[in-house]
Every structure is written in structure tokens, then in C-alpha cells.
């Protein structure tokens, strides 16, 4: 977007934000007025512009130029060889792309090695909760986020959800890995590649008639606000649920977990002035950004079906009802209904009764309780799920799409 139209859009933003505040926006576009103060961000200050009118001014023009020139196949071959944080971008890449990557792979000055190190060890202790919450909580919640559902559904990856999930799971794996941000790790690479994919999607999706028809007037997808919405559906949601479930997370661990997500937001191209500095700030921002946008869409319901089928495939469908009931328990009825999760009248009360006991037992708060057999089956299913989620994620290379979902 050129400077002129960006300015126009920024001005229009105030008016549209006001419409949203008056409740005049349609449900799929419902947003609250942006009042979140940049003083609560890791930057500590900022212009305070509503992030739904901000995209990625560094990555977007570069990826647009790359896509216009063509030859994405050869670029993706080069990108597949770029795997480690300490590796320079491949020499065979076009100069403009390499220059961008070299800049984008620098960690923010405020990244704290000790916190990142602590964060990497949380998964060893709480991996089953975090893995299950990412996969069956956040993953499914994404289908109740209209803009994300539609972007995913109508982009190239929407046609092959299994592949897409494996790639997205890679981020979940990389961010939780012991060496996520160490030289031999790969979270910088994954973050920068994802930032480039998002920039490519911003160039491609506006060319999709289906996306344009359903975008609710949004001209370019994946704004900074949209990324933050998804960020909260991951980081903030997981921390909130762990707390609600009574999972013991020390203050230092909670801060470290926030930190790894702060750094990751930066690597995905989110401006520092929008990245919450504390959990309080994150919760406040989540209430403003995530809560009002959750809604049911055709695309979201279709994606839920695909996602649940993929999960069920892991174990021949035996536990699909269990997984579905657990997801509803995790997401709550409101979101469960939105995304079309089936009701499981027998399993739902069982999980509601047994899961808190299981957590309390795992956290060492109670002795082995009398737990219905289904709860152990659930735990085993979750463990399998988390393992598969982690294993399948490893050999995947995130590549730049060069087209939208075929009509
Ligand atoms: C691609 C993660 C936010 C839409 C990806 C990929 C990852 C990822 C790892 C690469 C996998 C792939 O190529 O399929 C994230 C994270 C986000 C975020 C961690 C926020 C914290 C969003 C948002 C949207 C979005 C807000 C839309 C509103 C897409 C689309 C693709 C993609 C359309 C490309 C799918 C394709 O055609 O292959 N994202 N994403 N993402 N993301 Fe995101």
C-alpha cells in the first residue's frame, strides 16, 4: 500500500473504530475502539495507532516484488537449506530478500537470554498441558477467528490442511524447544520465514475473489491487530487456562513464558509498541482484541471439521468424541458452539469432573484420586497427540506460497 492510501486508511480507522465501539460493526468484523496504551508495551511508548491499520512495511514490499518477479520454486529450495538461527540467509537468494532477512533475523535489543533459557525448560515440566492447549485449544479457537479462518481457507495452504497444520505445529515445536533461540535452534528462522509467508499472503489474498467477497471490507489481510489476536489465542489463552486449571506456574516461569512469546511476536514483525510488557497488559489487550472478534463462519466450521478429522486419524477415530469433548471443555461452550463442535452428553460431564482431579494429581496437590477410566484414556490420547504434534513437526520446511487456494 502506498503512503497516500495508507494515510487514508489510517484516518478511516478512527471512524471505523468508532462504529465498532457503537456496536454497529457486523459480528465477523466486531472490534472495540483501540484504547490500549503503548505505555504498557515492551517499547514503553508509541504512536498509539490502531494496529488494525498497520501491516508490515518492511516485509510487504519486498515479498510483493519477489512474487511479481516469479521463480518462487527456486527461492523455496534455497529457503529449505536455511534452518539454524546462526546461519546466514542462503547466498543464492535474491539480494532484496536476503537483505530483508538479514535485518529481520536480528533479535530485539530487549531479548533476555536468562528468561529465554528459563522459558525453554517450562515445556519439560508442563509440556502435556501446553501441547494439548496449543493443539486442541488455540488450534481450534483459530477457526472461531473469522479473519484468520478466511485467510487460511482461501490461501494456498487451505487446500491441504494437513500440511498446513504440520507447518504451524512446527512453530509450536520450535518455540518450546530447549534451544529455541540459541545458535543451533531454529525459532529465528521459523519466525522470519513465517513473517515472509504472511507478507506473501498480503500480496496474494487480495487477488482472491473469494477472500475479497468475505473479508468484510479489509483490503489487506493479516494486520498487526490480526497477528496479536492470534498471539493471544496462543500465549494468553494457554497461560489463562493453566492458571484456571490450577497448574502450578511460578511467577518467574510465567514471566519467562511471556518473554519467549514477546520475542516471537517481534520476530513475526509485530511492532514493539504493540507487544504487551506484562501479563496484566496482555490480558487487557486480549479482552480488547480477541474476545470481541470470535464468531462463527462457514470457513471456520469447515476448518474445524478438517482439523478434527486429522486429529481423529491419529488413532483411527477412536477418540474423536473424547477429543471433541475435551476441546469443548478447554474452549468453553460459547466457542465450542461457534465452531460447530458436536455435543458429547456423556463425555462432557465426565471430563469436567475428572480433569481437575487429574491436574491436581499431576501437580502433586492430591494423592491418586479415583479417576474414571475415560480420564486416563483422555490423558493417553493427549500424550499421543502431543508427541505426534512434536514429532511430525520437525522435518517440515515453511515455504512461500505463490498462489491462493485453487477455486
Ligand atoms: C502461515 C504462524 C498469525 C494467516 C503461517 C505459518 C506459520 C504461521 C508457522 C507457516 C505455515 C504455513 O506455511 O502454512 C502464525 C502465528 C501467528 C499467525 C504464530 C500469530 C502469532 C496469522 C494471522 C493470519 C494468518 C493473524 C490471518 C489473519 C496465515 C496464512 C498462512 C500463514 C494465510 C499461509 C498459508 C499458506 O498458504 O500456506 N502462519 N500465524 N496467520 N498464516 Fe499465520
TrEMBL record:
Keyword hit for Signal: yes
InterPro entries: Lcp-like, MPAB/Lcp_cat_dom, TAT_signal
Signal peptide segment: 1-30
PROSITE patterns registered for this protein in UniProt: TAT (PS51318)
Keywords, alphabetical: Signal
Location of the ER-bound oxygenase mpaB/mpaB'/Rubber oxygenase catalytic domain: 133-343
Any GO molecular function: oxidoreductase activity
Pfam families in the cross-refs: MPAB_Lcp_cat (PF09995)
Protein name as catalogued: Secreted protein
Source organism: Streptomyces fructofermentans
